[in-house]
Amino acid sequence: MFENVLNNEYLCKTILSILYINLMKKMIMKHFFTCSVIVLMAVIFKLTVSSPVYTPTTPNQAFTPQFITFNNNAENTRSFADEALPTTAGVNKKLKKSITRLNYAHIGSNKLHLKAHKLFAVIEPILHAYHIPDDFKYLPLVESGLDGGYSVKGARGVWQFMPGTARYYGLKVNQKVDERTDVRKSTIAACKYIWALHQEFKSWTLAAAAYNNGEIKLAKAMHEQKQKDYYAMHLNRETGAYVYNVMAMKTVIVQPEKHGYTADNNFMPDSKLLAYKL
After folding, report:
1. Is 21 or 242 the better-scoring residue by pLDDT?
2. What is the pLDDT of residues 146-162, one digit of tens each?
3. Of 154, 111, 55, which is closest to residue 253 (Cα–Cα)?
4. Where do the structural domains in the chain lie, given as residue ranges?
5. Which of 48, 68, 80, 191 has the fewest Cβ atoms within 10 Å of its own Cβ atom?
């Protein structure tokens, strides 16, 4: 009889153990999806908080826009975003060619500088807030030129965004609204795009080239040519001259008198353009 009691007790414990294990399995399966979502959200939150990608400076960090700085130091125009241009004969020839095209004798007006004054009042502080080098403010002058920023390929605005890229970086583009024409909003989108390009290519010069050519095409050219130096690469005509054109724009803007322009700094930016919100 005592043996039967022990057997029954053992059997009861075994049954209870099995029931407990099955119950735990059901609870785990029931809440597995919820727990997984919570863990995933925690990981995303951690990555978002720790990432420096699109984080503007804090409101307490004051920034005084420079708009246009006239500088007669030739060395100031021999670098892009603090990345020095090579001093080879080929590079010098291409840069000189780009500068010649922007000479006052060819453009024939101060329209270039007037546009720069208006755009830089908006662009400079946003570049600063998103930690993008100041030299990128010259890209819109090269991208949109003096014709208002319309392209037969579908690009629009001073930053010449294609519809798909514009939407990806937060701009509304539809039949009723096209925020590519909003200088402030499109500049914020451009900052996000440029930062992402720099994260990929680890060079501001290559980021500028990729902005013009697209990151996929540039990466393919770099892989095929086994080359990471923009100035040593063989690219299509437009992209191959792009950084030189940006540097030429910088040269003509900061050294106007050397290229036939009048160093007149009395053009006041539109007060409406000075206001911006990140």
Report:
1. 242
2. 565 678 788 999 999 99
3. 111
4. 1-51, 74-274
5. 48
- Alpha carbon distances (Å) from 35 to 29, 40, 45, 104, 147: 10, 9, 15, 66, 55
- What is the Cα–Cα distance from 141 to 118, expressed in whole angstroms? 11
**CA angle 110-186-49, nearest 5°?**
135
For residue 170, give Cα distances in angstroms to 117, 191, 264.
26, 11, 37
Rounded CA separation 208/25 (Å) = 55
Token look-up 């990151």 returns 215
Q: Considering the entire predicted model, what is its pTM?
A: 0.72
| Residues in the chain, overall count | 278
